[in-house]
Amino acid sequence: MSAELESSAASVANASSATSASAHHAARRKNPWKEICAASIGNALEFYDLLIYGYFAVVIGKLFFPAQDDTTSLLLSVGTFGISFVIRPLGAIVLGSYADRAGRKASLTASILIMMVGTAMIAFAPTYAQIGIASPLIIIVARLLQGFSTGGEFGAATAFMVEHADAKRRGFFASWQLSTQGLATVLAAGVSALLSYLLTETQLNEWGWRVAFCFGLLVGPVGLYIRSQIDETPEFKKVAAAATQSEKSPLVLVLARDRAKLLLAIGVVAGATAFNYVHKLYMPTYALKQLHIPATSSFIGALITGLVLMLTAPVFGTLSDRYGRFRVLTIAMAAIGLSSYPLFMLLNTWPTISTLIAVQGIVGVLIAACLGPIPALLADIFPTQTRGTGLALSYNFSVTLFGGFSPLIVTWMIAASANNMAPSFYVMATALISLTAVIVLGRRTGRAR
């Protein structure tokens, strides 16, 4: 009898322990803030380094790409910014596949390490006046490393976020991907504005711009440490345990099985990334060169955009959970297509800091509205087995084609047409592409609402 009681007590204890473990696991799935923060801090660093180059494009152009006139120098500088996007699809293929093979955590750790190396190369690169042609080559290699790193970041980070989140709140948690991009914008624009305010133009050109890149290097080890302490996602562990050596690679599976979804997903991102890079990243240069607004004030405008994006992206992610990602995104893309021209008209009619701040605040809301639902939408259409690869490829091919070269494209459009409204035409064209892709993808997947 005593043995039976002991056995019964042991059974109850085991059941209680299993229930407790299950409850603990469920709690982690419902409140995955540790994992979200781990993905977010690295994501913020990646985009800080990307943005800071764009904000100092004028200075970098003069120091590393000297030419007979400032316009040519600027074109070379923003062209180098765009070059990093050429390699982003390769980063998406390698690091995205790595995320689906070795795990989200392994890919996230690799991407932040590569980004730190690229940032260090730019921060300490000798200028053209010091070592000649080797100087711009160092910048190009550094930008290629940064582009490769960023190419794998989106897919792994988004997959990591949604797989740690409750299925009904994926839009909310995945939107922190964009919220931290807003934080990166606040940091990059804030540091740039502070440096341009405290330093003379000569000091900024000689060494001040390097301080901005060194700030990113200081954050890097923190992000690396935090990512090393996180757990792999339960969904990936389950799929990895069931996988066999004979299965095809994630890249082959995406291209063979999910090709149509991949192409439509590229179209979905097109308008959002063009609007994002033209209105957020290129705007300080546009304000300085076309509107003749002081550098400090132009950076404050970008800071406002980042702040609004940081605060409102989770709002639109939540709306996508409640009302449907395709419905929210359709309205957002239409709003972007209709608003870009009026926003540029306002800036050119009243080229003041007050107008710039107001416009950039509106831009922040619109970026959040279109980019907030996109990470979860893309994660929904690709299965766990190929999610990292599918996310990385669709996002980065689109960003490369429509976003990365947008500063170069619109700079050329303005120079060729002598029309300051030219950037809005580019945004409207890409918004139309996205609107069409969203509608078609929604119908194909049966999620048109």
TrEMBL record:
As given in the record, the signal peptide range reads none
Compartments annotated for it: namely: Cell membrane
Identify the InterPro entries for this entry. H+-coupled_symporters, MFS, MFS_dom, MFS_trans_sf, Sugar_transporter_CS
One Gene Ontology CC term in the entry = plasma membrane
Q: One Pfam match, by short name?
A: MFS_1
Domain of life of the organism encoding this protein: Bacteria
Spans through the membrane: 74-96, 108-131, 137-162, 174-195, 207-226, 262-279, 299-319, 326-347, 353-379, 391-415, 421-442
What membrane topology is annotated for this entry?
A: Multi-pass membrane protein
Q: Which PROSITE patterns match?
A: MFS, SUGAR_TRANSPORT_2
- Keyword annotations for this protein? Cell membrane, Membrane, Symport, Transmembrane, Transmembrane helix, Transport
The residues covered by the Major facilitator superfamily (MFS) profile domain are 35-446
User: What Gene Ontology molecular-function terms does this entry list?
Assistant: symporter activity
- Family membership, please give it: Belongs to the major facilitator superfamily. Metabolite:H+ Symporter (MHS) family (TC 2.A.1.6) family.
Protein name as catalogued:
Major facilitator superfamily protein
Organism this protein belongs to: Herbaspirillum frisingense GSF30
| Phylogenetic classification of the source organism | Bacteria, Pseudomonadati, Pseudomonadota, Betaproteobacteria, Burkholderiales
